[in-house]
Amino acid sequence: MASLGIPQNTIEILQKYHFNFQKKFGQNFLIDTSVLDRIIAAAEITKDDCVLEIGPGIGTMTQYLAESAGEVVAVEIDKNLIPILEDTLSAYDNVTVINDDILKVDVNKIVEEKNGGRPVKVVANLPYYITTPIIMGLFENHVPLKSITIMVQKEVADRMQVGPGTKDYGALSLAVQYYAKPEIVANVPPNCFIPRPNVGSAVIRLTRYEKPPVQVDDEKKMFSLIRASFNQRRKTLVNGLGNAQELGVSKECVAAVLEEMQLSPTVRGEALTLEQFARLSNLL
Ligand code: SAM
């Protein structure tokens, strides 16, 4: 099978199967071999790796992964793509395609079955409408991971990487940076896809920490605090957290902890580092 990264080959396959793009599934297929090469290089795939691909589409990146990895498992929601994948991946005996919703399958079970529970690498050109739940699902369910190398909307890649004091900083930045080291590896313009998305894209690599960079007594509590802080971004922490019923802390208590941390009583969540959120959570 000729490389689908070459636009003409992708167009031929789409025509052969009379494929109709489904907007609701965020279908924008890659048609640029140099971008595909960069993704594979950034993910540092070797024959020792088992790779989980989310949303293989017609199998463009899957072909590259199958060439470089020991084993590839690809989860695709659109049943119309399954016969196409059987065709485009017929040359490879190290690929398993699962027709399911990545947000519903038990990823830990897949990793157990396919890689004996050892850490896998996730590589994907993600459907942009569910980028955050996919990433958070992988981290929060403690899927054994070495790294996640993904194409996402440029703005979302920026959000994952930034620190306090910028408008993009928020709950996603803190969650990603608690679990992994983020690194943008490429910016990708709309003309590298068919159909073209309305937004710019970027490839970001998240390298999973073996141990989180901060010490937290109760992870769940810290993330509830973070969510509450950014839900009401413009409010001070005293008001935002004191008003969040689910946390069960009083304004006085928040004020006392901020004082102990030598922070201003009018400080907002957007000014706190991950380390400060961890300390706040431990003290509260
Ligand atoms: N990997 C292909 C490529 O690079 O050309 C396709 C990428 S396209 C941006 C996203 C893919 O994810 C589509 O094939 C889409 O059908 C699939 N998808 C969308 N939602 C999904 C879900 N919940 N679970 C699994 N796959 C999904």
Report what the structure shows.
The protein is of the alpha/beta class. The chain contains 12 helices and 9 strands. The strands form 2 sheets. A 7-stranded mixed beta sheet has the order 4-3-2-5-6-9-7, with helices on both faces. A two-stranded antiparallel ribbon has the order 1-8. α4 links the parallel β3 and β4. The mean pLDDT is 96.
Topology, please?
Layout: H1 7-16, E1 29-30, H2 33-43, E2 50-54, H3 60-68, E3 71-76, H4 82-88, E4 95-99, H5 107-115, E5 120-125, H6 131-140, E6 145-153, H7 154-161, H8 171-179, E7 180-188, E8 193-194, E9 201-208, H9 219-231, H10 237-243, H11 251-260, H12 274-283
Parallel strand pairs: 2-3, 2-5, 3-4, 5-6
Antiparallel strand pairs: 1-8, 6-9, 7-9
Helix pairs in contact: 6-8, 9-12, 10-11
The protein binds S-adenosylmethionine (SAM).
Structure summary:
The protein is an alpha/beta fold and 284 residues long. It has helices spanning 7-16, 33-43, 60-68, 82-88, 107-115, 131-140, 154-161, 171-179, 219-231, 237-243, 251-260, 274-283, and strands spanning 29-30, 50-54, 71-76, 95-99, 120-125, 145-153, 180-188, 193-194, 201-208. Helix 3 links the parallel strand 2 and strand 3 (71-76).
